[in-house]
């Protein structure tokens, strides 16, 4: 019987345990369901902020107006602690919840608290200095005499002790110095830079004092002349012109010249080499020149120890003043007299001296047609003995017309002085140069989203491409941005071969380049399939998910750089144009961007399909306005000066901006490339490596190539005709050999297939033969 009882008790205990476990599991299931209702923390946080605000306002109102027992209590409490300083405490109590309601975080609250305490000490010290110096006793505290003291009980005894140690004036000096130091710490002000800037402004103030007085007098006289000429009815225009021309001879016109970059701290080598706050955010691992040799090779797909190239690898800017105020005033007098000779009434408002040009901003009088001023560009160039004059009518955002005249001596803009001013944390923000006013100009490739660069030989196109590539290398590790370089000329981009940022080696064969572009299209399609799987719309959203979910791999940006589009279009225009069009239309969200450069801005190279999908463009100096319209859809590039002078048209702007491109020497490029190569080896992606198209087809491999192949290639480029009978007559060969050469040319993509009775199409341009000759 006892055994049966024990068995029954065991069974009941087991069932009870099972019941308990089911209850626990039931509780767990209920807990799992509870997060669906867990929306309270976000709302309660906002509710707490609002409640904090309401309570703060009520306490301040009750205390200030001393309403009832609670109001008198809070008023006595704050005055007991802070004295007269309590009114400022009331303002802070109300302002703090307002600041938090605006969803802002308070910057370094500890420093703010210290600053308030120091200000309280200053209140107390000033009050003690203006009253008796008797020390407060316990009876005074009990009788609430403390509330009548400037800083209250909180600061009275510390300040008294400080006066005992340092005297009154010593304490005043220490407290004020501490307040200034705390303010410097809060706003992160550099003492040395502040002293240098104050010194610079003081010196400029003395130099400009006399000039400002003359300027004000000239403004008044010019205004009087304009009012007299256009508001009175009996004035003769010819007498007016003669009067203004005589005035030009006697006195200088009103000209406001921008200050030259003469700050010592900018050109000081030590300060130029110091990384800015932006660069510190980009990479805290910037190193000095002594650490240039890095022996450690980064392991595959691991760039934790990779160090970005330091800015010290670039050359320092050269301190140089290209033009004086007297030169600008003299040009303005000639410009004013030119308009007067043609009977056009204008007023020169301002002159801005840029690196390569000076822009005179003129204000036409009412009734003057803008077209009359624009048509005088050749006459202005003749009178000023200038190479070219560009007129911007009107200046965007101003009711003024800009006349851009070349400087006698150009100022060299180095990449270093432009790059150190980049405050954008985007990995694809690249330096371009400086505008007319001397401000640094940058562009974000991910916002362009594709860029077309065109210009004649020697205008600065290749330097601009090198500047963009170097900006990417200076800001990004190899796992963040990948590059694909296509260089049919085989001389411009070969220096970058072997850097770890490349997905494949620099492609120089035009046929292989078409294959690489097709593989870029396939990569784009693969990325969009991954985006659909992750249910995101672009690469930024996908990388956010990849950072949290190990099932997804973070994707890098891909920048495709084509240095000479014309060579590709001559060999395989159809395939290249189709691939470029697809990439330009769809690749932005996939993180794939293109930079296309060419020195032949003709319509057969920059086709309508390519132009439509590449809104951002850079035009360097070209030979004619037709080429300028091909690049920018408007004239203007034919008046550029060359040597980096460019017009930059962004995707979000309707008018181009004139920029002096940053100069980057070959030695600087070599330094950056060597630094990058010293840390990591190139790891090419086999999916991006071009296949051996020619050898697979058997058309132009080393074994099967006919000795007359190259000669025939040049012949059909010249004549724009291709047939077996033509080759038989011209080269005196048999039909079989001629037909075999024609088949090779068709397989290599130089000529089209047979189309009935029509002649074969020749895809080579005549310039192809001229280049070889």
UniProtKB/TrEMBL annotation:
<dbReference type="InterPro" id="IPR002543">
    <property type="entry name" value="FtsK_dom"/>
</dbReference>
<keyword id="KW-0472">Membrane</keyword>
<feature type="transmembrane region" description="Helical">
    <location>
        <begin position="109"/>
        <end position="128"/>
    </location>
</feature>
<protein>
    <submittedName>
        <fullName>FtsK/SpoIIIE family protein</fullName>
    </submittedName>
</protein>
<feature type="binding site">
    <location>
        <begin position="455"/>
        <end position="462"/>
    </location>
    <ligand>
        <name>ATP</name>
    </ligand>
</feature>
<feature type="region of interest" description="Disordered">
    <location>
        <begin position="1"/>
        <end position="34"/>
    </location>
</feature>
<dbReference type="InterPro" id="IPR036388">
    <property type="entry name" value="WH-like_DNA-bd_sf"/>
</dbReference>
<keyword id="KW-1133">Transmembrane helix</keyword>
<dbReference type="InterPro" id="IPR003593">
    <property type="entry name" value="AAA+_ATPase"/>
</dbReference>
<dbReference type="GO" id="GO:0003677">
    <property type="term" value="F:DNA binding"/>
</dbReference>
<dbReference type="GO" id="GO:0016020">
    <property type="term" value="C:membrane"/>
</dbReference>
<keyword id="KW-0159">Chromosome partition</keyword>
<feature type="transmembrane region" description="Helical">
    <location>
        <begin position="80"/>
        <end position="102"/>
    </location>
</feature>
<feature type="transmembrane region" description="Helical">
    <location>
        <begin position="51"/>
        <end position="74"/>
    </location>
</feature>
<keyword id="KW-0238">DNA-binding</keyword>
<feature type="transmembrane region" description="Helical">
    <location>
        <begin position="161"/>
        <end position="187"/>
    </location>
</feature>
<dbReference type="Pfam" id="PF01580">
    <property type="entry name" value="FtsK_SpoIIIE"/>
</dbReference>
<dbReference type="InterPro" id="IPR041027">
    <property type="entry name" value="FtsK_alpha"/>
</dbReference>
<dbReference type="InterPro" id="IPR018541">
    <property type="entry name" value="Ftsk_gamma"/>
</dbReference>
<dbReference type="InterPro" id="IPR050206">
    <property type="entry name" value="FtsK/SpoIIIE/SftA"/>
</dbReference>
<dbReference type="InterPro" id="IPR027417">
    <property type="entry name" value="P-loop_NTPase"/>
</dbReference>
<feature type="compositionally biased region" description="Low complexity">
    <location>
        <begin position="23"/>
        <end position="32"/>
    </location>
</feature>
<keyword id="KW-0067">ATP-binding</keyword>
<dbReference type="Pfam" id="PF17854">
    <property type="entry name" value="FtsK_alpha"/>
</dbReference>
<dbReference type="InterPro" id="IPR036390">
    <property type="entry name" value="WH_DNA-bd_sf"/>
</dbReference>
<keyword id="KW-0812">Transmembrane</keyword>
<dbReference type="GO" id="GO:0005524">
    <property type="term" value="F:ATP binding"/>
</dbReference>
<comment type="similarity">
    <text>Belongs to the FtsK/SpoIIIE/SftA family.</text>
</comment>
<dbReference type="Pfam" id="PF09397">
    <property type="entry name" value="FtsK_gamma"/>
</dbReference>
<keyword id="KW-0547">Nucleotide-binding</keyword>
<feature type="domain" description="FtsK">
    <location>
        <begin position="438"/>
        <end position="629"/>
    </location>
</feature>
<feature type="compositionally biased region" description="Basic residues">
    <location>
        <begin position="1"/>
        <end position="22"/>
    </location>
</feature>
<dbReference type="GO" id="GO:0007059">
    <property type="term" value="P:chromosome segregation"/>
</dbReference>
């Amino acid at each position: 019987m006892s055994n049966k009882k024990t068995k029954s008790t065991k069974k009941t205990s087991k069932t009870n345990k099972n019941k308990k476990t089911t209850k626990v599991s039931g509780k767990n299931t209920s807990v799992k369901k509870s997060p669906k209702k867990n929306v309270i923390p976000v709302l309660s946080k906002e509710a707490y902020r609002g409640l904090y605000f309401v309570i703060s306002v009520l306490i301040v109102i009750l205390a200030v107006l001393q309403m009832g027992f609670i109001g008198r209590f809070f008023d006595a409490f704050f005055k007991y602690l802070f004295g007269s300083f309590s009114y400022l405490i009331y303002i802070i109590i109300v302002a703090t919840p307002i600041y938090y309601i605006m969803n802002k975080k308070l910057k370094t609250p500890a420093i703010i608290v210290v600053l308030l305490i120091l200000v309280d000490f200053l209140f107390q010290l000033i009050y003690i200095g203006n009253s008796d110096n008797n020390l407060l006793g316990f009876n005074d505290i009990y009788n609430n005499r403390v509330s009548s003291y400037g800083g209250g009980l909180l600061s009275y005894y510390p300040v008294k002790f400080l006066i005992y140690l340092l005297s009154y004036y010593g304490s005043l000096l220490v407290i004020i110095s501490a307040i200034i130091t705390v303010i410097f710490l809060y706003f992160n002000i550099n003492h040395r830079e502040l002293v240098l800037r104050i010194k610079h402004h003081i010196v400029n103030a003395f130099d400009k004092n006399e000039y400002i007085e003359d300027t004000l007098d000239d403004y008044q006289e010019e205004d009087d002349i304009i009012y007299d000429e256009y508001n009175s009815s009996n004035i003769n225009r010819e007498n007016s012109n003669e009067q203004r021309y005589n005035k030009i001879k006697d006195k200088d016109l009103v000209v406001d010249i921008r200050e030259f970059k003469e700050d010592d701290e900018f050109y000081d080598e030590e300060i130029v080499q110091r990384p800015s706050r932006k660069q510190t955010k980009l990479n805290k691992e910037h190193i000095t020149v002594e650490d240039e040799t890095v022996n450690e090779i980064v392991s595959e797909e691991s760039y934790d120890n990779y160090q970005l190239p330091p800015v010290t690898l670039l050359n320092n800017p050269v301190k140089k003043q290209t033009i004086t105020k007297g030169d600008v005033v003299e040009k303005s007098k000639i410009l004013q007299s030119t308009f007067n000779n043609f009977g056009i009434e204008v007023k020169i408002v301002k002159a801005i001296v840029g690196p390569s040009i000076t822009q005179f901003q003129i204000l036409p009088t009412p009734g003057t047609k803008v077209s009359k001023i624009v048509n005088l560009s050749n006459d202005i160039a003749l009178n000023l003995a200038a190479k070219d004059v560009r007129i911007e009518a009107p200046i965007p955002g101003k009711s003024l017309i800009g006349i851009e005249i070349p400087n006698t001596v150009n100022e060299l803009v180095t990449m270093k002085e432009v790059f150190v001013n980049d405050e954008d944390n985007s990995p694809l923000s690249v330096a371009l140069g400086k505008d007319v006013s001397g401000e640094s100009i940058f562009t974000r490739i991910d916002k362009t989203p594709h860029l077309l660069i065109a210009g004649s030989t020697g205008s600065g196109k290749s330097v601009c491409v090198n500047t963009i590539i170097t900006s990417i290398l200076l800001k990004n590790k190899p796992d963040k941005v990948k590059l694909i370089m296509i260089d049919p000329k085989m001389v411009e981009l070969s220096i970058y071969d072997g850097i770890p940022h490349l997905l494949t080696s620099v492609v120089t064969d035009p046929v292989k380049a078409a294959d690489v572009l097709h593989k870029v299209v396939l990569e784009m399609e693969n990325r969009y399939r991954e985006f659909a799987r992750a249910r995101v719309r672009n690469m930024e959203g996908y990388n956010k998910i990849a950072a949290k979910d190990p099932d997804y791999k973070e994707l890098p940006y891909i920048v495709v750089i084509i240095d000479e589009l014309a060579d590709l279009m001559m060999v395989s225009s159809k395939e290249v144009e189709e691939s470029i069009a697809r990439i330009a239309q769809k690749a932005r969200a996939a993180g794939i961007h293109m930079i296309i450069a060419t020195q032949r801005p003709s319509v057969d190279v920059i086709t309508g399909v390519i132009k439509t999908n590449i809104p951002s463009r850079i035009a360097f100096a070209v030979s004619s306005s037709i080429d300028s319209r091909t690049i920018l859809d408007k004239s203007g590039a034919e008046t550029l000066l060359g040597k980096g002078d460019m017009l930059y048209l962004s995707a979000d702007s309707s008018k181009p901006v004139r920029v002096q491109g940053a100069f980057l020497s070959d030695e600087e490029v070599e330094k950056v490339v060597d630094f990058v190569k010293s840390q990591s080896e190139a790891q090419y992606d086999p999916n991006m490596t071009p296949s051996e198209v020619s050898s697979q087809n058997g058309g132009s491999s080393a074994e099967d190539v006919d000795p007359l192949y190259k000669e025939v290639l040049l012949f059909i480029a010249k004549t724009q005709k291709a047939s077996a009978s033509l080759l038989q007559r011209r080269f005196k060969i048999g039909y079989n050999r001629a037909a075999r050469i024609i088949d090779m040319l068709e397989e290599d993509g130089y000529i089209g297939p047979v189309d009935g009775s029509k002649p074969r199409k020749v895809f080579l341009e005549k310039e192809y033969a001229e280049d070889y000759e």
